[in-house]
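Posting this for the archive.
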Amino acid sequence: MTRIIQINKSVIPACDVDLETFKRIVRETGDLDKIGGYKIPAKSGRKGWETWVKIARENTDKPLIYDHQKAGTDIPYTGASFMEELKEAGFDAVILFPESGPVTQYEWTIAAQKIGLGVIVGGEMTHPRYLADDFTEGNNVNYTEIFRELGFTRGLSGFIRGTGPEDMYELAARMGVTDFVVPGNKPDSIKTHRRTIELTGVREYALYAPGFVAQGGEISEGGKVAGDRFHAIVGRGIYRAENMREAAEELISKL
């Protein structure tokens, strides 16, 4: 098994920022041992990818993970060219959230694997009303009332059926994927997803989890249920801090 991140536990800055802020993040945290890599956003764009990669490589050799927010949702055949572009730009891995079905998931995963691009698969997100039958509110907003005013008298829950994430994780594991994104602010979901992965026979795997700090999750709590290989993805908790290095070190101490 080839590891995307060599160390067992780390913090991954989610760099959903402008280019100048990205430079600061990498310069201030690039030498910290427990920074496992950097998550690069879709906003960088194709030409931007090369610029962001160049800036990162001037300051660190840590893995660069591309997150398209959310890749793996197009038709199957577009995956090959997408992966080739990422590989040529210099990325080490890509995050997929294959919400458009198993055929796209299969083809996009195969396309990445064929060219040696690391694959990290997610199935469940951190926000309310992602799954069917979930009617929870969020961010101190009464969405039930908002949707009722828009005419949804029957209520409006998530669009993804409840077993959808489990199918995404299982298919990924059966295709040889060993890196998975889980919702860090939902410990019970993490336990469920670990069980699904392990039922396929996979024992050596890594979990990546967003949903901490600004979204209410606790790194220490998420790490307990995530197992031996756990990478906490943190955005605002680092890039909105006055001292990014100190913020990163504080988060690392909770691993």
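The radius of gyration is 18 Å. The CA atoms of residues 29 and 245 lie 6 Å apart.
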